[in-house]
Protein 1
Amino acid sequence: MDYDSYARELAGKARRASRVVAALDANAKNKVLETMARGLEDAAERIGEANARDLAAGREAGLAAAMLDRLEVTPKRLAAMVDGLRQVVSLPDPVGKVVDSRIRPNGLEISRVRVPIGVIGIIYESRPNVTVDAAGLCLKAGNAAILRGGKESIQTNLVLGDILAESLAAEKLDSAIVQVVRVTDREVVNRLLKLDTEIDLIIPRGGEGLIRAVVEASTIPVIKHYKGICHVYVAATADLGMALEIVDNAKTQRPGVCNALETLLVDDSVAAKFLPVLRERLEPEGVELRGCPRTREILPDLAAAGEDDWLTEYLDLVLSVRVVNGLEEAIEHIDFYGSHHTDAIVTSDRAETEEFLRRVDSSSVFVNCSTRFSDGGEYGLGAEIGISTDKLHARGPMGLEELTTYKWVVRGSGQLRG
Amino acid sequence: MDYDSYARELAGKARRASRVVAALDANAKNKVLETMARGLEDAAERIGEANARDLAAGREAGLAAAMLDRLEVTPKRLAAMVDGLRQVVSLPDPVGKVVDSRIRPNGLEISRVRVPIGVIGIIYESRPNVTVDAAGLCLKAGNAAILRGGKESIQTNLVLGDILAESLAAEKLDSAIVQVVRVTDREVVNRLLKLDTEIDLIIPRGGEGLIRAVVEASTIPVIKHYKGICHVYVAATADLGMALEIVDNAKTQRPGVCNALETLLVDDSVAAKFLPVLRERLEPEGVELRGCPRTREILPDLAAAGEDDWLTEYLDLVLSVRVVNGLEEAIEHIDFYGSHHTDAIVTSDRAETEEFLRRVDSSSVFVNCSTRFSDGGEYGLGAEIGISTDKLHARGPMGLEELTTYKWVVRGSGQLRG
């Protein structure tokens, strides 16, 4: 079968399956999620074998150690996938919730009701847990899922997909509610991305290159974030002790994730006092500081930070530091170099707080706390399918509700338009 | 200047202007809208002259009469544009509204607050009123607008754009809050559609060809509807008198718009009774009925309706009719041939009502009323920038709120992630 026919068949099956899953009530969805969780537990050996084949192929292909690590499904990681599904069981079902309603003067009852989006395509790299996490969230929100992981993890993903499909079949449901793309050639993805009458939403997860390629090729709406260049601005009135703890936490608690701090902005009036203390705290933790010219007047032996640094998501123990002249310059820097992910101010000035929160155009704006809180779980969403720095549909962490849409329901008694 | 530089300059100016308009409060926005309304009133002659040049060029180019009609700005139409702006003044400002908020166990105060989207590009055909309507709605929602109408209306649009820009300048605001694209070459649009870091949303308005071309070329999110193939299903238990009035109203009250009825589905059990009465009502009103084979068993001299008819948005006094075997077949037809715009059932059965409303996957689903109510004004939104048959961000009629997004605002007192 050619790639185009394969893509069309996948998408057509998903569209039909989407009607089945959309009609399930919360109990039925929870039952199949539990069956999936048990199915994964029971198949530990089968998953391990497939994963070993991926790892062997990866070693042979000379994959980097970090890549091999992400590929590996350890017993602990399998248990986390199973736990994840059970957490999704415990979340409330967003489908059917009435968003708002009104009765018009002519008697029409008009309401907006949450409904599933339909068919969602997830395109990701080599972490096999995404296969299970995304399947569970899409299903709970009443959607069919098409899952396409990196080719390095194909054997693992196929087995995970088989187990999810078997669980659906065991519950007498259409197994195409969750489909793993079985062909690794990129051309299949490119064909899928044009099927905008069958697929409603694409969520790419991975590096900026992957995401740009998906956006470029897709005629289907895409929700995404390219990167997370998060800032903390230490303002003139900041409690410097609090600022030190926040910067330390935001940079070092988990440096490899998108809500970690990348660029610190320090107000000129406190820079001479704050920066030496900061260095004393961070350098022993292995953080490399890079500074703008004014930072290097205070800490002369730091490496220089330039344009490239302001635009870089290090995802590592590196922190670029810039001294700015007040709020205006801080906001300008964030606006120009930032990625609209998460940006924070540390201040004790109320007016400055409100101005920062109002004017910084990021999906999450923080005052006096660590950027690491930018996360669906921390926000109380229960689980997260991803983070959006787009402006449309969903912004910031996306939970179950963001995997739904609404329809307008209008009830009349014979009304005609005059 | 080359097209790429021109597009980048436009988009860059819009991005800068978007920060100005986003910061305006409701009073300031209303004041400039009123200045625009007065500016248009005072410039009637200037607008008329520009419009006469477009009309003369159109006649010379052999434009169809309907096209010339759409192009014309009569005094009545100018008054309607002015009224439209004043209606927008009277609508509540969506910006700053708190969508929801919560306090987390660690004391973080987390809320979602409505904010403008940023820069919105509107791409439309030759009706110059869109220039003013879209500018007003975008501005009230705190956005900068880039407006690109059809080349046939360029002289009119440039003058309208100049008046809006002069009104902004008179209020000491950045005149790039509303920009009309001054170059008619399509290549400028294609360049604009790739500037996804400067432009946040594209709303195309026009025929299916225009919209498909925009979706194909754009890396910016697009909200749209391709067409409106609206259905009414007359069920077995329908009040046939009510059904007759609803079908008549939905088809004939304004046949040229997207929420007009295109295909009637009649339950087999009532077809023999209903169809002859329907014909007696509609044919004198000039409606051509086209029927499926079963319809033509009842009304043998009707023209045949086939696959093409089910897929056609007539926008005219033509109605295709199909006899179906119950709800299931009606839903299947709507699902397969429909455009997810607006679909209605006429029934007196409660269970059937609920099943139709739940299973029909359209942006608006109606029971016992005319499809013509699918409209922002009729829904109580106050005004409408367009209708979306997409699933993301906005579905159905889009008002001011749909021209906003939200941001997450997180207030802490030194919280760190453990």
Protein 2
Amino acid sequence: MTSHPFDDAVALEPLGDGRYAGRTHPAYANMVGPFGGITAAVLLRAVELHREVLGSPLSLTVNFAGPVADGPFEVVAEPVRTNRTTQHWSIALTQEGVVATTATAVFGLRRPTWSATETPAPTAPTAETLDRQQLPPAIVWAQNYEMRFVDGLITPGAEHPDSVSTLWMRDSPPRPLTFASFAALCDVYYPRVYLRRGEMSPAGTVSLTIYFHADAAEVSAQGEAHLLGSARAHRFSEGFFDQTAHLWGRDGVLLATTHQLVYFKA
Amino acid sequence: MTSHPFDDAVALEPLGDGRYAGRTHPAYANMVGPFGGITAAVLLRAVELHREVLGSPLSLTVNFAGPVADGPFEVVAEPVRTNRTTQHWSIALTQEGVVATTATAVFGLRRPTWSATETPAPTAPTAETLDRQQLPPAIVWAQNYEMRFVDGLITPGAEHPDSVSTLWMRDSPPRPLTFASFAALCDVYYPRVYLRRGEMSPAGTVSLTIYFHADAAEVSAQGEAHLLGSARAHRFSEGFFDQTAHLWGRDGVLLATTHQLVYFKA
């Protein structure tokens, strides 16, 4: 039995005192450095593996400060403050002492309260009835994700009136969902400017935030099922835009809301 | 001529090496500690005042790790990495050596590119035709904000079918908009759970992210005009919910998109 490439890509060797050794994985390579989603997953793993961790992830913000070079890296995760039900983390990924990525995370304990969901999943055909989208082989990391578009596929050379993409997604080959793989799935949407303009151009995430609505049982209950995601931008201006996405699971449960600020040239 | 209370509240005395001394201001007190928006503004000011700052704010994430006690505090702002067009910051607010708030920020240079706005301002009567909402005197900080609700005012004792509030807002007394006052305005929305349930209950922001779409000229062009904001939640579950808001200025320009994760009891 061989391990899933995702697990190899997020593997961290504890060095003690919240420090870990990791290494970029060729299967998750992007144009420059690794796929941002896999970096987010690695940083989340560093907290999950820490012996002082409290509960499960509530929020994660990852700042892509500079390129991550192919090869080894070090992660340090520090519990900055631990309260009764929440715990605040500061995390950094460095290479040869230079900071490539910074992050903050909030972990915590959930408890039964009044609950409501205001953002239902959009109506969509089942995943099985839709074609799997084959992204260009140059986008190496995307080969690890099964994406079946409901809406908002790029038409090369044609502008699109809005930036909404809705798609079914999961790891490829399928893998039971965990918080870390789920964090990576929050970053699978290509930059919304590609869709609007009908062409690829230099673009990269500057800062990514994930709010985890799902608890451990809800994450586990997804198994290898497809998740439904929908992303859109709000404003593109002077080299930057933001995009927001929602991710729903089985029975339409809203698992996460995620936001990012993206740098672009166009 | 006296200064505006906002300027007094965000005043920082440079101590060198990215360290600053500040003090909570009684006019911006909340139930426990200061209004989160004023803390966000203070942390942004620490970067703006730093001699190495590059350009204007692009994103800010503030993690409210623990209560801020009334009295003096220290802020430290560190430029973690400076690139050609973006600069990543790590910021912390401490009191007697204990971390109360952590933050990361991205500042940078903007440049002309293709641009588009996908999220137009909702249709709303002009601010002048709407009543000013008087919040209870116990919510001290709110007395510094003029709020004129278009929609989504709490009806005590009555549940509300959705969590959308749309309102005109500005400093009171009016003050020309700056990035710092604008950051504070991103946090004026009361917790969405109050609106849904028609009652106040213990609640507090855990993590706040702001994406600044506006450049310095667009911020300056607002002057003392009312801004239009609209906030809503996506999912309330097990003690936490998220809320997203958009903030538009003169001529319907989208100035910011802001998100937060909120702790609640109910």
